[in-house]
Amino acid sequence: MSNDCETAITETGWGIWHYFTVCLCGLLSFAEGNTSLIVPIVAPLIACDLRLDKYQTMMPITTHSLGMAVGAFLFGTISDVAGRKKLIPIAMTIMFCALATLSFAQAIFLIKLSVFMLGLGAAGSNIILKVYLIECLPMRKRGTCLAIIDMFWVVGYLSALGISWFIMPSVIHMLKRQFRPSSWRVLAVICGMPSLVFACTSGLLLPSPRFSLHRRRLRQALTVLQQMYAINYSKHANTYPISNLEDCVQSNDEDESNSIQSYFTKTWERIYKMYKSPYKRTTLYGTLTCVLHYPGFAWLALWNTHVLQEMERGDVLSGNGTCHVDIQDVALDFLRDCSEINEARFGMLSLISLGYVLGESLLIAGIDVIGRRPYLIFSGLTGGITSLMLIFRLHHAIRVTLSSIFLAAYAIGCTTTCVLLLENYPTALRGTAMGFMKVLPYLVVFALQLFLKTSCLLSIIIASINFMGAAFVMLSVPDLTGLPMKEQFMSPI
């Protein structure tokens, strides 16, 4: 089945349709990245506006992570039942509605509900986009295109950071009087607008041909492949060389029922299959790796920025507690107080986050040429070593450079891991597997946001161990660079 599916997609060529689809998926990823920092940025402003204490201020942040855990599971599992394409605008619309509601929220309950729904939509969008895109790509472009949409995400993340940095000080300077923390409402709407715009344009995407083949919709799959071929080659669709797709999919007993009972039954069956041969090892290794990568792009950059600023005030190795990591300070330090923005936090975060651009650029340049494993090894060794070097007495500029390299290595490791996992599951399990493996990492982040309080030294050592451990674990997963994706059919229980 794998070779037949790859042949059918390869015959569509590579051209305008693929460029358009990758760019559109990239813009959708950009919109998601635009919301990645909105909660930690507006949380201290909400606290000033509504006069909340630190514990109440942390609640929206932890609720956001809980929403991401729920969203990853729901959207991942539903995508294997309902398809990929139709869930993309739903996830984006949820993100916009959540931010629009947040901008008008006056009660803490409504704020928590809004950020929960924001997390639900963001996690769902992240998973569905990658599952959809990889199912439309020929094998020689899979890794590069996944790295490209992650690059779009990074650009969205950096643009949100820049917009936030621009809006907050400008309000203070423009008014020349007491700071108005209610400006966070405008910021929430601005960061949510791309989600609404690109949710509408996502209707231009074609259905996933692999999912159509999996659900035995052969006519729909052939029509999609013919359209891809016609656009790429500027030829009539009927000249597409493959007309019989019967060999691309094995018959199965799954029905098209959309009942709630059927959803739970099929989801349980898919999770069961994930932990049976031949997917058991991949599932266990993938889950462990995702946990080791648990902070995520935005939170890892926030942690790194906080550590760098703490190092300016105290020695990491002194052992006297002068350099410490408190999750409340990591999350809420965008304001010095309710009348002054923390310019240093914005500046440092923007500077070291450029490392993500470097990491994704290196992936785009060679992941489909060099392969996945060399990048994993490079990521683990580079990230682990640069992290440990931060504990020594070094010039501030050197520490900033090391932090940027550290984040570049993290971007390489995360994107490469995602590509490997997507390639090693069949279409029947791909969405469920990606969603299910993200639940535990988001729950870990949720727990850490409630209780994390440690020294800089210990947090740096843990980060280094996590980096090297994640790379070592994923080396056991097959590298399918230049090979067909797994498409082995698993019969129901």
UniProtKB/TrEMBL annotation:
Keyword Membrane included in the entry's annotation: yes
Instruction: Please give, as recorded in its UniProt entry, the membrane topology of this protein.
Output: Multi-pass membrane protein
| TM region(s), chain numbering | 61-78, 90-109, 115-133, 145-167, 187-207, 283-303, 344-363, 375-394, 400-422
Q: Where is the Major facilitator superfamily (MFS) profile domain?
A: 21-481
What is the first-listed, main subcellular location in coarse terms? membrane
Q: Which SUPFAM superfamilies match?
A: MFS general substrate transporter
| Localization per record | Membrane
Asked if the Swiss-Prot or TrEMBL record annotates the protein with the keyword ATP-binding, the reply is: no
**A Pfam family for this UniProt protein?**
Sugar_tr
For this UniProt record, give its keywords in alphabetical order, as a comma-separated list: Membrane, Transmembrane, Transmembrane helix, Transport
Q: Which GO terms describe its cellular component?
A: membrane
- Molecular function GO terms recorded: transmembrane transporter activity
Instruction: Give the domain of life.
Output: Eukaryota
Q: Which family does it belong to?
A: Belongs to the major facilitator superfamily.
Instruction: Return the protein name.
Output: Major facilitator superfamily (MFS) profile domain-containing protein
Natural source organism? Cardiocondyla obscurior
